[in-house]
């Protein structure tokens, strides 16, 4: 009777090197900094605006400008570098709007950020809209209607990026793009691992 077992050499070193590379502290410090910088400065400016300036218009313009910079940097730079996700809108030849959501496949030579950077990305992306939602209720109950308009604009910019990246995460998890016409928020509620698996 012949022995069917043979010695097989397993290459755990490559897996350990990949794990060590992914758990390294921060590979993209500038992207990580700007991922949080604009949104934190906008929140601090909102909190201190009554004390700094009496002019609502200048505060409004400054906060919306900071959040616009944040929207652009998160959508076009930090999402790609820190987690390998991107989304955009394009118009086809027929004039129809087409939303594209992509997730980069991780491989040994990829330049996607580390686990610490992914945690920074997702926590910043989730916590800041929650803070703006808190500001919404405080300005609503204190009847500060002009500040309410600023907070609604801030929430819409923050939630747009969050929604886009959750869609990208869903594409990466499923391996195929979801049908953009039939997608609703219920897809995210049916898959809580998409939201809670990132933390």
What's the arrangement of secondary structure elements?
Elements: H1 12-22, H2 29-52, H3 56-83, E1 85-91, E2 97-103, H4 115-141, H5 145-174, H6 186-190, H7 192-196
Antiparallel strand pairs: 1-2
Summarize this, please?
The protein is mainly α and 199 residues long.
Beta content comes to: 5-15%
| Helix/strand order, N-terminal first | HHHEEHHHH
Write down how many β-strands occur, each being a DSSP E stretch of 2 or more residues.
2
Helix/strand class: mainly alpha
Largest sheet: 2 strands, antiparallel
| End-to-end gap | 53 Å
Mean pLDDT: 80
> Which geometry do the CA atoms define?
globular
The neighbouring-strand order within the major sheet is 1-2
The percentage helix is 55-70%
Rounded to an integer in angstroms, the radius of gyration calculated over CA atoms is 21 Å
Low-confidence runs: 178-190
Number of helices: 7
Structure explained in plain terms:
With 199 residues, this protein is mainly α. It contains 7 helices and 2 strands. The chain has helices at 12-22, 29-52, 56-83, 115-141, 145-174, 186-190, 192-196, and strands spanning 85-91, 97-103. A two-stranded antiparallel sheet has the order 1-2. Strand 1 and strand 2 form a beta hairpin. The longest helix is centred in the C-terminal third of the chain and has 30 residues, at 145-174. The chain is globular, with a radius of gyration of 21 Å. The termini are far apart.
